[in-house]
């Protein structure tokens, strides 16, 4: 039995091999904001929690995911201001929340210019669910 199938409903929410391939490509082509955020969260730097980057979840690839917290972090670039993209983002958030996950969105600008505040918001989320 494939070990990924054992975890598919938990860690990956049934993501297909195609989604895993997309995630790999995204990890190889991170935005500047994603790279900066990754440097701040990798190696369990936030309250000891492990974050994964470009993590497959169902039909999506989350920018960042902490399985222990059931927390998805999305870093949104300028195109997320487009009305059609905002509708897609709302559906994506609703789909992920329906699966028992929490979603927090930050803009590229927040990550690039106010990273300590971004980290504080994540720590506040952690404190609220603890």
UniProtKB/TrEMBL annotation:
Residues 21-126 form the DUF559 domain. Gene3D superfamilies: VSR Endonuclease (3.40.960.10). Keywords: Endonuclease, Hydrolase, Nuclease. InterPro entries: DUF559, Endonuclease_DUF559_bact, Restrct_endonuc-II-like. GO terms for molecular function: endonuclease activity. This is Endonuclease domain-containing protein.
């Amino acid at each position: 039995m494939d070990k990924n199938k054992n975890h598919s409903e938990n860690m990956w929410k049934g993501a297909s091999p195609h989604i895993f391939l997309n995630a790999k490509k995204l990890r190889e082509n991170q935005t500047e904001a994603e790279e900066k955020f990754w440097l701040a969260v990798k190696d369990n730097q936030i309250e000891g929690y492990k974050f994964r980057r470009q993590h497959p979840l169902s039909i999506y690839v989350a920018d960042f995911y902490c399985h222990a917290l059931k927390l998805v972090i999305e870093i949104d670039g300028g195109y997320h201001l487009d009305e059609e993209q905002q509708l897609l983002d709302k559906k994506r958030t609703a789909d992920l929340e329906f699966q028992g996950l929490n979603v927090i969105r930050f803009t590229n600008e927040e990550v690039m210019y106010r990273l300590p505040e971004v980290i504080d918001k994540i720590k506040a989320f952690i404190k609220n669910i603890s």
